[in-house]
Amino acid sequence: MRIAPLLLAAFAAACSLAQEAKPAPVLPKPQDPAAALAEMMQQFAKEGITLDAKAGTLKLTAVMNAPQDALEYLLINRRGKRHEAMLWTKAKPSVLNGALLLLGLTPGQNAKAEEIVPPPSIEAIEKGAETVKVTPPKGMNLWFTVQWTTPEGKVVEHCLEDLLLDLTTQRAVVGCSWVYLGGRMGQLYRNEPEVFVADFEGNLVSACYMTPDNHLVTIVHERGRDQHNWWLTSKAPEPDTEVQITIHRQQPKLHQEREARLAKEAAENQGEPQPEGGKPVAPPSERTGGGK
User: Could you list the residue range(s) of the whole structural domain that residue 262 is in?
Assistant: First the structure.
């Protein structure tokens, strides 16, 4: 992990600002890189985050949520939209974002929507023609795996996609990826300093295209613009189950195995991917009885 160059760059910027100021402030001595790294790791540990730069992984403690509406977010902080999120964590978003940056990720571009000019005719729109062109997010990909222990003591691990139901196909989502956005700084109130907005909104990983890009990670999928398209598969653990999320910079073996399995099933079924996770769990609006 190259901490020293980051510190030197920050120190150089401080020196530049100091030269412009009159009188020049007394600058603190640059912190030792090893000490800086140790301090950051302590901060990560307080937030339930474990960073392994050599392995290219970040582990995060989270809890399974009990959403009431279709999923817009797969991961939130406690401040986030709890009624439409899969998992929640106590970790502070800005600290989590710092760990993702140290993992070597660089922010990408969020989805963009542009009105089609000239617009389609009324007749074409009635037949399903689009009035808006959506450009999917672009940037560095990352991968998620989720692990937990069942009440029987069995350790279970899945790709995050195994838990996400595509309501259009009634199957676990396929053909999606995840792009790092990095959140953004912004003013909450006029004449006040900028803050890291996700620390106040609490939304971290989106299952659909959301703007502005205050969140840290977004899905990339052909139905990413549909905020009502996502729910839970039956592979999802029970609400309040503590889980460990692992964020991978490189595609892990579990994802490679999933892709190979899906490709084999698609070939055997003439291109039709088969349901994963057993019988899908209907969203609240479609349930006929109580329970998850």
Answer: 60-286
Q: What is the distance between the alpha carbons of residues 239 and 251, in angstroms, rounded to a whole number?
A: 28
3 state DSSP class of 183: coil
**What pLDDT, in 10s, does the model give residues 144-183?**
999 999 999 999 999 999 999 999 999 999 999 999 999 9
pTM: 0.81
Q: Give the chain's end-to-end CA distance (angstroms, integer).
A: 43
Q: Which amino acid is at 170?
A: Q
Matching residue, tokens 């120190």: 11
- Report whether 178 contacts 144 (CB < 8 A): yes
Count up the domains in the chain and report the number.
1
Nearest-angstrom CA–CA distance, 134 and 106: 22
**Cβ atoms within 10 Å of 223's Cβ, excluding its own:** 20
Token pair of 260, please? 């190979």
